[in-house]
Design goal:
With 248 residues, this protein is mainly alpha-helical. Helix content is 64%, strand content 6%. The strands form three sheets. The chain has a two-stranded antiparallel ribbon with strand order 1-2.
Length: 248
């Protein structure tokens, strides 16, 4: 259920706007360090955000196609909810890749600039799920665990507060990536670590949820998380091996 402020402004939308604003501010503080031109963060937002919104919606629609095939007019009703984080990440990445090609900038440097900001935005965005009473987990029947933040009260029942678990995992990931941002040797390394960190947490937490997007018997986002952990981790390690072999 979409909750609003003053009966007009979607609270989830406000949280997303806050996440974008903080992310843009963070990126502005990093662009010089990464050797990127001034105002790259602003251009980044103009390219990434629209693609992210479209990607988030398409991801959700594709894996709820039985409903939207019967009600195609509802596809554009984004104000009624139905956005997927992974779709936003994929769409945003496409927008950034296009920006890097047109402006002749390093895609790896752009990805590193946004990695901590992205996971910080995800930290904030998950609280929109709390406001709307969604993205919760399995039923908790043991009274000893029926309290927040272990659980959340939804529909007169206590459920795992999976939105909170993921928000805290993402917050820890932000501090982790922020601390390592100056230690990465090659453009793109920090973003690869983002894929591993976020993917690892999402793999576990997605398995606890009751409202996962499904593809047959599989939880779509859980499968994608495993793939990102494997690809991100393998690519990162391959880069380390190549560096060591060159140093010999």
């Amino acid at each position: 259920m979409e909750r609003t402020l003053f009966g007009v402004i979607p609270i989830y939308g406000l949280l997303i706007a806050l996440a974008i604003a903080l992310g843009a501010f963070y990126c502005m503080r990093q662009e010089k360090r990464l050797g990127l031109p001034k105002d790259t963060a602003v251009d980044f937002a103009l390219w990434a955000v629209p693609f992210a919104i479209v990607g988030a919606r398409l991801y959700y629609v594709v894996f709820n196609w039985d409903y939207y095939a019967a009600c195609p007019a509802d596809i554009i009703k984004v104000w009624e909810g139905g956005m997927a984080i992974y779709g936003g990440v994929i769409g945003g990445a496409v927008g950034v890749w296009l920006m890097s090609r047109i402006k002749k900038l390093s895609f790896g440097a752009l990805a590193d600039m946004v990695a901590p900001a992205l996971i910080l935005g995800q930290t904030i965005g998950r609280w929109g799920n709390f406001v709307n009473g969604e993205a919760y987990g399995n039923l908790i029947t043991d009274p000893k665990w029926q309290f927040f933040p272990a659980a959340v009260f939804v529909g007169n029942e206590w459920h795992m507060a999976t939105f909170f678990y993921e928000s805290m995992w993402d917050l820890a990931g932000f501090f982790f990536l922020h601390a390592l941002r100056k230690k990465m040797k090659k453009p793109g390394d920090l973003f690869l670590l983002y894929l591993v960190w976020y993917g690892a947490g999402r793999t576990v937490i997605e398995g606890l949820r009751t409202d996962s997007l499904m593809w047959g018997p599989f939880r779509v986002s859980q499968v994608l998380s495993v793939v990102l952990v494997v690809l991100g981790g393998s690519w990162f390690m391959l880069r380390r091996v190549r560096e060591k072999s060159k140093a010999i």
